[in-house]
Amino acid sequence: MPIPLGSLSLASDYSGSQNAVAGGIVLHAQSLRLDHPFVASRFYRHGWQSWSPTQWLEFGQPVRPVMPASRRPQADDPAHALDPLLGGSNVTALAATDGQVLLLGALGHGAWIHSDGQRLVAEAATTLDWFLAYGEEQAVFAAYAAQLAERLGSVKAHPAPKVWCSWYSYFTEIDQGEIERCLEGVDGLGFQVFQLDDGWQHDMGDWQANAKFPDGMAAMASAIQAKGMRAGLWLAPFIVRPSAKLFGEHPEWLLRHPDGTLVAAGDNWGGDYYALDTTLPAVQDWLRALMQQVRAWGYDYLKLDFLYAAALPGVRSDNSQREDAYRAAMTLLREAMGADAYFLACGCLIHAGLGLSDAMRISQDVTPFWDNEDRRVHLADPSGPSTRVAIENSLHRLWLAPLVHLDPDVVFFRARYNLLSPPQQQHLRDIASICGFVATSDPPHWLDPHERTAMTQFIAHQPQVKQLGRYRFELDGRTVDFSALVAS
Ligand code: 9PG
After folding, report:
1. Ligand 1, residues 50, 238, 346: which to mutate, most atoms within 8 A of Cβ?
2. 444 vs 65, which has greater pLDDT?
3. Atom of ligand 1 nearest to the CA of 267
4. SS3 50
5. From CA 144, how far away is CA 150, in angstroms rounded?
6. Please, what is the Cα angle at 83 between 80 and 89, to 5 degrees?
7. How far is CA 138 from each of CA 37, 47, 285, 288, rounded to the nearest angstrom?
8. pTM for this entry
9. For labeling, which of 353, 373, 388, 454 is most exposed (least CB within 10 Å)?
10. Which residue owns the Cα nearest ligand 1 atom 2?
């Protein structure tokens, strides 16, 4: 039946209720087909998880499938990686030629929406509510976020903490001595969290300190706290590498295809890694114990990563739908770590985790260089680390700000080991200011006095931010325009 929406009337296959809410209407269905009377110029493609491409795409451009999901399940929802039509996860918007925007978004999770420019075709794993709106772009996204917030909870009032994180200078090459050196160096600079990233653990699945941390993780947390900061730790609780002890001890905990073969969750650290079936009670006990262990060591800022692995297609012990299983596993993590821990979700599903973590990474990783065209083109992998694309993704997820702290990844102040030009570094700082999430990995002893001053000033000051358009902002009265970056 037709769905009236302001000045529009949409033809549809929908026959249920249409409830007016602030800024739009709510429909209730498992699938929807909506024919719009205008020719859409662009499609808002929302990526499944943190690293998945999120952008406005033009109709008429060839759809570029991502690398076969069997090799790159971490790029986007593997169930849709090779779809021939433009599509996106849980929410989409179409730009009409009059500048107005038609938005359709799930008020839940497990949905995918396609478009061929003539109609929207939406499909969810279960029956759920959908929000539909037509109007000015920022207004329809704000109305959608308000509906999600009402159902799933909004962002906590406290500002996001300022974080020093080891990843973007050392990668996995961290050790106790180098970390202690950085800890000394950041003392008094204004950071609230000092976070160890990948490299402290034995293996993915074996979450114990490795030989590079001879005093152990509890001693490290105490040293951080002694400097007046919260201790932060990175873990990837849902994944396991074949080299891990856990892999050999509990092959029955791993997520499998119907034919019994293992579901590869991705390729990294020199080979494939696998996913846990988080619906198994024994796995749940193990996850709970892991969260309790890291809290007992003294860490209360947890960057939990590669979380999408819990939502990959596979056979689960309780036959639950994969995004429901993900939400249940995220709920378990949150409950086990405690409400007072700061939970940064990374490599995470966006919709299926709303209301559970304090912050979400909303882009792929940034890099100390501008772009990585090789990976995007040769590997057809738009999720690869790239500062330019990371900023582009973050810009397209700013509408989530009322729901969760938005982590656009770190900023750089250093010239050492860095090819970013000063204006490119400024772009990164500006997106961090806009998101209100400030993090860096620069070791203080890599900085010259000028860079060090820039860092302390940046940490101390949160500029006034006003959004002027999709890519234009005013920061303390300075106009910032990302349009060229998005177009390049
Ligand atoms: C630690 C890093 C950092 C970083 C995270 C995440 O597709 N991949 O293989 C892939 C590997 C690493 C990665 C993202 C994607 O980075 O975003 O901040 O914590 O893990 O290993």
Report:
1. 346
2. 444
3. 9
4. coil
5. 10
6. 45
7. 22, 19, 43, 40
8. 0.98
9. 373
10. 198
